[in-house]
Amino acid sequence: MNATDRSPLFVVEEVLCTYPISTSYDSCPRYLFYALLLAVCVTRWTGWLADVFLGAAATYAGTAAIQAFILVSSSTKHRTPQTVSIPRIPDNTSLWDDFPALVTETNEIDISPAAIELDADAVLSIVVTAYLVFLPLQCWSRVFAKERISSIIFTLWNVLMFAGSICSLVYWPRLKKTPIQYAFCLPELPPISPVSSDGWESWQLTSTWNNSVWNIFNNASLLLQLNDVCFYPCFNTTQVLRQQTSLQATVASGDNRFTRRHKFWGKVIYSQRYIYSLIALSMILNVLLMMIRVLPYHSRVPSSRVWEIWKERKNIIRGLKEDFHAAVHTSRDHRESMLEKSRTKLPLWKRASRFFTLRVMGLWAKLTIDVIIICAIVFSIVVSPLTVIAFVAWIEYYIYHDGPSQETPQQVGQWSPLVSIALLCISAAIYKLKYWVAPRHEIENDIQELKKEIERLENLRDEKSNTREFHSLHSLRDRFSTEGQHYDSSQVE
After folding, report:
1. Distances in Å between the alpha carbon of 8 and those of 24, 109, 181?
2. Strands of 335-391, DSSP E
3. From the record, what ranges are coiled-coil (predicted)?
């Protein structure tokens, strides 16, 4: 390279400062999580095996939800940018070979140290996917909601996943607003990419960024104190869940250049509206089905038993037709009687109001609600799986552009979760053989324990029955007492 290329005191290169995805959220554990969710849906009739898969997936997603809460609560605004004057370098310089992200044709830049938390991408994929799977399971599966305590636990877990999803969806768009970052290097020493932070020392920032940069490159002793061949202002940042030494700076060459990343973000934001719409639609449909199960309404459509709906589809359709004909017949009879009465001089509002009796409105409301339930179930069956597939493909495509994984599948941090799940399944399967291998005295001890437990449950049942009867008698006594007071007052009159 010629001398004019090496004449600047320092050069500026665009870098990408990130906290890489944690090993617990890397590709192998994340794909294992998706496989566990699929296994829960496929094996939900097996009982113990589905419980193993569900417990592993739920705890993994719960950890991600807690991290989403922390990320949102600890998020801070970016610092006010400071202008730094730099040597002007022309576009036709030969420094491009060593500095592919070189800043040219300008004599000043704005510095606002910041770093991108890539865990936000993985947390978003895990928490939202878990919520999109757990919510329909609670709506459709009788296995996970056959007991009240199971339904309560599932509801609380869905609340946690919903809150984590909201926090993730709120925090994730903030990554786009991360300001551009730079590295200041000697023209003779191109940077190593990627480079990890060794921590930040107070002498590196004295008063302003402009003074600090020029003081370092004008002072050979300060330049030698740098931990790397370049000066990275973004290393002056912290993350509450990360060590400062885990921060990495990568030369923003190719697709990592700010302008290209901005175009990529434009594509992501354009598709984001459709993904968010699918998520909202899936959530509304499943919450509607859950509310129908909770409300005291007896419907012809068993919304919690999808297979039974298909088996009884002819009876359900026949019943809906009967409800429709009954509503039409009742409305017609009432209209004819009102036509006879309308010959009298009744006010218009009275004649109009009598067309809408409680019986007519009840028949039409019952028919309308049943049709809404059927439509919600059909759309939920179609939309919920489609939403999960579309969201996972969309977010994994984005995570792919975050860069390569920190670890390969051969490293213990990636395959250890799979081994843990396999050992857990083997242990649960062996435990199912408990009474086949147990000696006689162990079985007799378990029988005695079960008898004691049955006796305790029977006593608890009797206590609840007595309490319910007591409240019923108490309410009857209050009602009779009130009616007696009304009777006495009428006699006095």
Report:
1. 44, 16, 20
2. none
3. 440-470
Helices (H), 172-312: 209-218, 220-224, 258-294, 306-311
Give the whole-angstrom CA distance, residue 206 versus residue 210: 10
> What is the radius of gyration, based on Cα positions, of the chain?
34
DSSP 102: B
223 vs 406: which has the higher pLDDT: 223
Q: Considering Cα of 139, then 143, then 148, then 151, what sign does the dihedral take?
A: negative
The two three-digit tokens of residue 245, written as one number: 């030494």
Greatest Cα pair distance in the chain: 119
Residue that wins the pLDDT comparison between 471 and 92: 92
- Give, in degrees to the nearest 5, the angle at Cα 270 between 268 and 271: 70
Instruction: Report whether 197 contacts 133 (CB < 8 A).
Output: no
405 close to 27: Cβ distance less than 8 angstroms: yes
- Tell me how far apart the alpha carbons of residues 165 and 128 are, in angstroms, rounded to a whole number: 5
Of the candidates 74, 128, 179, the one whose C-alpha atom is nearest the C-alpha of residue 388 is: 128
Query: Which of the four pLDDT bands, split at 50, 70 and 90, describes residue 454?
Result: confident
Q: Do the Cβ atoms of 82 and 111 come closer than 8 Å?
A: yes
The secondary element (H helix, E strand) that includes residue 411 is none
Distant-in-sequence, close-in-space partners of 455: CB < 8 Å, separation ≥ 6: none
Cβ–Cβ < 8 Å for 123, 68: yes
Residue 233, preceding peptide bond in cis (omega within 30° of 0) = no
Strands (E), 5-63: 11-19
What band does 83 get if pLDDT is binned at 50, 70 and 90? very high
Alpha carbon 311 to its chain centroid, in Å, reads 34
- CA dist 179 and 66 (Å) reads 27
Q: Indicate the range of 228-232, 333-337, 470-474 predicted with least confidence.
A: 333-337
Residue 339 has pLDDT above 60, yes or no: no
Please tell me the distance from the alpha carbon of residue 469 to that of residue 75, in angstroms, as a whole number: 55
Residues 6+ away with beta carbon under 8 Å from 366: 323
CA dihedral angle for residue 418, residue 166, residue 377, residue 274, rounded to 10 degrees: -100
Return d(Cα 94, Cα 203) in angstroms, integer: 33
* Contacts of 371 by beta carbon, 8 Å cutoff, 6+ apart: 320
